[in-house]
Amino acid sequence: MSDSGNSLSWRSLLDEIRSQCREDVIADDMIKLLNSYTSNEENWRDYAVFDPHKYTRNLVDTGNDRYNLILICWGEGQGSCIHDHSGSQCVMKIMSGKLRETLFQMPKREGQSEMTVKEYRDYAKDEVAHINDDIGLHRVENPSHADTAVSLHLYFPPIKVCRSFNQQTGESRQCQPTFYSQFGQQKSQ
């Protein structure tokens, strides 16, 4: 983690992501870049839109179709389904609160058996994680029933589809990620 005295500003972070996501993007470079920003709620508050019934995906930047940057808001106890990234890399930075990532092995035969947990990883504010399909499938959740959490996700190339998995059977279905808000504006429901 970077020393807060050497931390990038929010605007500089967004500019650097745009600058570095032009050609062949290297995951380690994006991990270092996200580590160089110390989370400050005043910077990203306008993008943080919560829903009491589900976690929300809030689009920050489309990245000229080279990446997308999404702020995800997790209410108390909320979590994602088990999912892949359909060829995208994902670098996630915890902006506030704590999150738990559960990694799963790819089902050997879809629809035949319960999915196998590989490991659990807990993350706190300003920690950065990386996932892609070679690492495995995962579920992300806010383990707290008292506090919310917020995370920033950089997907490159942009995530347009993914597969969600049933933990009991390993069956999957294709789904298209949607956004609860775009650029700080909540979409009409």
Q: Could you describe the 3D structure shown?
A:
It contains 3 helices and 13 strands; from the N terminus they run H-H-H-E-E-E-E-E-E-E-E-E-E-E-E-E. It is mainly β and 189 residues long. It has a single domain, classed as Jelly Rolls (Sandwich), CATH 2.60.120.10. The strands form 3 sheets. It has a 7-stranded mixed beta sheet with strand order 7-4-9-2-1-12-13, with helices on one face. Strand 1 and strand 2 form a beta hairpin. The chain starts with 9 loop residues before the first helix and ends with a strand. The model has no long low-confidence stretch (mean pLDDT 92). Its cofactor is Fe cation. InterPro entries: CDO_1, RmlC-like_jellyroll, RmlC_Cupin_sf. It catalyses: L-cysteine + O2 = 3-sulfino-L-alanine + H(+).
Quickly list its features:
189 residues, mainly beta, three-stranded antiparallel β-sheet, 13% helix
**CATH homologous superfamily placement:** Jelly Rolls
CATH overall fold name: Jelly Rolls
Unreliable stretches covering 5 or more consecutive residues: none
Can you list the strand order of the major beta sheet?
Answer: 7-4-9-2-1-12-13
Task: Give the tally of β-strands.
Answer: 13
CATH architecture: Sandwich
Largest sheet: 7 strands, mixed
Gap between N and C termini: 39 Å
Radius of gyration: 16 Å
Cross-link (3'-(S-cysteinyl)-tyrosine (Cys-Tyr)): 90-155
Enzyme class: oxidoreductase
Binding site for Fe cation: 83, 85, 138
Protein name: Cysteine dioxygenase
